[in-house]
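Encode chain A's predicted structure.
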Amino acid sequence: MLVDPAIIEPIIGLERSGENLEEEVGVRLFKEEVNETMGCLSKEFQEVLILKIHYGLKENEIASLLNLKIATVKTRLYRARKQLKHVYTEKVSA
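Encoded structure for chain A:
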């Protein structure tokens, strides 16, 4: 009997996911915390991070969409990540 791998893989994955369920929950909680922490950033930093992380846009695409220079987008991304890391670290250690 031939079985389509696309059908069987999710079933097999469910059997094995018991081991990784805790890890998966941890990753989801971390993502939620990061998204919540992004709310503390300025609008300019939020824009570029959301477009980069959630929508997977490249720097030149973000620049075109926001009518900015590529260098400005790169600078904002760098500063946004740095500030996000700082705010998240303070939040976690508190």
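The chain has a mean pLDDT of 83.
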